[in-house]
Write a structure and sequence with these properties.
Length: about 280
C-alpha cells in the first residue's frame, strides 16, 4: 500500500513583490516559494534586485524604499515589518558578505557566542565551532574577529545565524569576497547545515529542516549547493526551475549568457556539481 506523505511546508512565499524608490521600480512584481529543507539560489548581476529582495525578506530594507506585494515567512505576513517588529517565528537568519560589520571587533569569539545563545560551557562552544569545520577551535574562542581569516569569519557568521533558531537562512553573497579554498569550506558548511540529519544530530542547532536562500552572481558556485535556481535581471525574474535543468537547457538569453560565462571558467566545460553532505 502506497504511503502518501504531505508536501513540504512552505517556509517562504514571496508574492507579487514590488520595490520602489520614488517612482523608479527596483524589483518588479516577483513571486517565488522556498519549501522546508530546500536550497534555492537567487542569481543575477549587480543591480538585478537580488540583494534588495533579500532585504525585503529579512526585514532590513531602508525606510525610504516603498513595498507592494507580500513576503510570508512561516505563514506570517512580514513585507511591511522591519526585523525587530517581527514575531519570533517570522524572523530570518542572515549571512552577509561583509563579515566585519556582522561581528563585534572588540569582543572575543567565545564571548560573542556565549552572549548570543544559551550555550555557555567551553566544551559546548568547542563542539559548535568544530561543527562549522573550524580547526584549532580552542584558540579561536579567545581570538578577536580581526585575527581570523575571511573564511573563518564567514563560518562563524553561519553559526550565529543557526543559533538564532530561525528555520530560514538567507545567505547574501557569502562567498564573493573569499578565495577559492575558503569558498569551498563555506559551501561545505552550508550544505551540511541544510541537511536535516546534520542539524538534528546537534543539540545546539534546531532539529527542523533548514531552508536556504542563497544569493549569488556566480552560477558555478550555486551549482555546488542548490537544488533550484531563480534568475533575476533588471528587477524581474526571467527564469526559474531545477538548477541542473537551467545549466543543461537554459531558455532565457540572460540565463544562457550566465551558463556560457561559467563554462568558460572551466576548461573541460563541465561545471562543478552538488556533492554529498559528507564529501
Amino acid at each position: 500500500m502506497a504511503v502518501n506523505f504531505p508536501p513540504p511546508r512552505c517556509t517562504l512565499s514571496v508574492q507579487n513583490l514590488t520595490l520602489f524608490l520614488d517612482e523608479k521600480v527596483l524589483v518588479d512584481n516577483i513571486s517565488f516559494d522556498v519549501h522546508e529543507g530546500e536550497k534555492v539560489c537567487l542569481i543575477g548581476a549587480s543591480g538585478s534586485g537580488k540583494s534588495l529582495t533579500a532585504r525585503a525578506i529579512n526585514g532590513t530594507l531602508a525606510p525610504y524604499i516603498d513595498v507592494a506585494g507580500d513576503v510570508i515567512v512561516n505563514g506570517v505576513s512580514v513585507a511591511q515589518q522591519p526585523v525587530l517588529a517581527r514575531r519570533a517565528e517570522a524572523r530570518v537568519a542572515t549571512v552577509f558578505q561583509d563579515t566585519f560589520s556582522a561581528l563585534n571587533p572588540l569582543m572575543s569569539v567565545g564571548k560573542q557566542l556565549s552572549l548570543s545563545t544559551n550555550v555557555h560551557s567551553r566544551d559546548e562552544l568547542l563542539a559548535l565551532l568544530k561543527q562549522m569545520q573550524l580547526k584549532d577551535a580552542e584558540s579561536l574562542l579567545s581570538r578577536l574577529p580581526s585575527e581570523l581569516s575571511g573564511g573563518q569569519r564567514q563560518r562563524l557568521c553561519i553559526a550565529f545565524g543557526l543559533l538564532s533558531g530561525a528555520n530560514l537562512l538567507v545567505a547574501d553573497e557569502p562567498t564573493t569576497a573569499l578565495d577559492v579554498l575558503s569558498q569551498q569550506q563555506v559551501i561545505k558548511v552550508l550544505r551540511q547545515c541544510c541537511d536535516d540529519h546534520a542539524c538534528s544530530h546537534s543539540e545546539y542547532l534546531h532539529a527542523s529542516p533548514l531552508s536556504l536562500l542563497f544569493i549569488t552572481h556566480d552560477i558555478s558556485v550555486a551549482a555546488q549547493l542548490c537544488d533550484r535556481a531563480i534568475v533575476m535581471q533588471d528587477g524581474k525574474i526571467v527564469e526559474q526551475g531545477a538548477l541542473q535543468d537551467l545549466l543543461s537547457h537554459p531558455q532565457h538569453p540572460y540565463t544562457q549568457r550566465l551558463v556560457k560565462a561559467a563554462h568558460q571558467v572551466f576548461s573541460d566545460t563541465k561545471l562543478p556539481q552538488k556533492q554529498a553532505v559528507n564529501a
